TrEMBL record:
Gene3D superfamilies: Winged helix-like DNA-binding domain superfamily/Winged helix DNA-binding domain. This is Sigma factor-like helix-turn-helix DNA-binding protein. Residues 2-37 form the RNA polymerase sigma factor 70 region 4 type domain. InterPro entries: RNA_pol_sigma70_r4_t2, RNA_pol_sigma_r3/r4-like, WH-like_DNA-bd_sf. Transmembrane segments: none annotated. It comes from the Bacteria. It comes from Robertmurraya beringensis.
Amino acid sequence: MIILRGIKELSVSETASILHWNENKFRITYHRALKALQKAKEDFLYER
């Protein structure tokens, strides 16, 4: 999901279609994934 949307820059509808999800489910899950990655980044930098 992160690779398809964030790196390959596919649209929300294209990415949702590939994953066989509806667009709303994709948007919510993508938003949560980005928040989790940001927290992991902050935790990693804090521990260093």
